[in-house]
Amino acid sequence: MENFTPLTATFGGLLIGLATVALMLLHGRIAGISGIVSGLLFGAPGDRAWRLSFALGLLLAPLLYSALAGRAPRFELEANFPLLIAGGLLVGFGTRLGSGCTSGHGVCGLARLSPRSLVSVLLFMTAGMVTVAVLRFALGA
Predict the structure, then answer these.
(1) Domain residues of the chain, as ranges?
(2) How far apart are CA 61 and CA 4, in angstroms?
(3) Interior CA angle at 110 toward 36 and 98, to 5°?
């Protein structure tokens, strides 16, 4: 964990918590990114404004951080393009299969003490750990 920064991690966690609480209090909605984006693309036209605002906030936040910090966050990507496409498709499939994503189940669902979210989080965390173990240790990637 050579890049761990407690201050920015704490601030980021607080912002995520505030955003999820605000979305629940103001709109009665769960801040699950897959559901928000899906509704933006395929939902009712009258339900798209808040979804678009939320998605734009996710896209613009790194730019705001860069402007305030005076530098962009360091980012290294060690995967090639076909692997990124395959990973994205598998994540999309997994969010449909699990009826939600890490933000919906992990952040919002666990906070609401949802048993379904607990099972989902345990399953996708286990799958992630097994995948890393297989790729790094068994295949030497």
Answers:
(1) 1-76, 77-141
(2) 19
(3) 55
